[in-house]
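Final report, closing paragraph on structural work. Over the funding period we assembled a curated collection of sequence-structure pairs, and we close with a single example.
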Amino acid sequence: MGSGRLQHSRAGDGGGVRETGTADKRNKNYHTTQRDAARRGAQIADRRSEESMAEEAAQEQPRPTAPRPIRCIVKLGGAAITNKGELESINEDSLRSACAQLRQAMSESEGDGAPEKVLGMDWSKRHGDPADPAVDAEWIAGMAGLGLDTNFIVVHGAGSFGHFQASRSAVHKGGLHSTLVKAGFVATRISVTSLNQEIVRALAREGIPSVGMSPFACGWSTSQRKLASANASQIIQSLHAGFVPVLHGDAVLDELLDCTILSGDVIIRHLAQLLSPKYVVFLTDVHGVYDRPPTDPDAVLLNEIVEISVAAHDTTGGMETKILEAAVIARLGIDVYITKAGTEHSLRALKGDVSSDTEDWLGTIIRSSK
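Its predicted structure, as stored:
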């Protein structure tokens, strides 16, 4: 976006002018002062931390009151719901299990143990289906309600979707003047939004009234990769209406770089700051945070982390980002649970049925000492 850059140009004098008038000198001095002030302002802005910018962005957003407190923000990790070794490949079993557990966590009735008839909401015909979807409209019309506490927000990672397109075009570095970056921006968004649709469909098949929301389409943007604009009004309105918003990491516009990638973990942190959920759950492909890479046979699962210091743990890549964002959330007084998707431990986390003195729960609790 050109408006975010300072461009300086200087016309040659042709060598024929030896002196300038007083007005020209004043004009030159004025513009020099303005340029210096702009440089100083940019330097100061660069030194501002991402955390403080995010907090300011949260404060600037409208805060309509939710019908009841947000219960949980869930992160479906890309490594848990996709096959990362295969381009754009969904781990169907893991995704199905995660969606079924979300429904169980939302259920307002313990039931009598009998199989519950689920109101499937994916009424579209998929390629290869032999017949149109069957919809029992009469039964649905007679339902008193869904029987679900839908005050959840779901954010998912990209996994094997989007990363290939983004890395081949270096979208995260910006520069939409480049044809490769512009094409990569489009390709990345096609990929991540297609995954978002599949996750929404999987949730809908479990009777969860979910709606996909792309940060780019909602007007979220960054400034030098730091969150600058994040209007959550559409998310809050959807919660009011009884829907479960489903967001994802996305390619977005950047005020200084033209474009970049906004991660799902940053989205969760901002929403936690804005909406103050009771707890936050990260569902991953491992049981939690270890004191060293979990592939190491001597790795020890850290059951609870208080006043976390990332430097104290040997973490890399995506897990490091999760821990950094989780630490910010924990400082708000919100417990964060990190555990493996599709296990009894993830179901308990989604229900909020976890405490630090629970010995039979496998996962990591991150909380503030305050």
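The first strand starts at residue 72 and ends at 76. The two ends are 42 Å apart (CA to CA). We thank the funder for supporting this effort.
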